[in-house]
Amino acid sequence: MKRLTHLAQYHFSFNYPCPRKLREVVKLSLFEKETTDKCIDLWTEYHNTRSENISDAISKKEYDILKRQYTQSPMFLVPIKKKTGHFLLLGQAQEKSILFTYLEDYKLKGTKATPYFVITLFDELIPTKQLSLVRGDIINFMITKPEANVVWNLTLKQYLTPDLYQDFVFKFNHSPHEFNYEAYSQFFQLQI
């Protein structure tokens, strides 16, 4: 795990194949007329039918914390459990997106590693609805839609839970020599 400790200084080199603005996905003028609950329902219903996408909606408060934390500490690990073990994704936040690639690909290819999964946080409805719509685009079907949901939920958990953020994300970025992979593995119940 020693090679992990220097990763926070690098950025993925990646052409973005996913929508970057909410208006690229929905008719924003129509969404702005709907209630917050209706926006969430429409967003969820649309993405439930798409095999390559996941969706969520987070509050302005969650969005603000997440954005502040990932601006300060943009890189982190997310485990994906499989029947025969697990693998790690390396996540990197960039502006309103979080890109995930297979850690071993990143070790081999560095910034040329291709993302498997991309999360986009849309903030256009925050001023009027106090709501950020979230979309995940599965780029490489080495991860499934249920696994993509796990990646998103573990991302939120690591960034929004103060102890997890401090122990696993902040240290990974700012004090890599203090990042305790054994504690990380134990917390996420990974076999080492």
From TrEMBL:
Pfam family, one: ATP11
Keywords of this entry: Mitochondrion, Transit peptide
One GO term describing the cellular component: mitochondrion
Keyword Zinc attached: no
BP terms from Gene Ontology: mitochondrial proton-transporting ATP synthase complex assembly
Cell compartment(s), UniProt: Mitochondrion
Similarity field: Belongs to the ATP11 family.
Protein name per the record: ATP11 protein
Lineage: Eukaryota, Sar, Alveolata, Ciliophora, Intramacronucleata
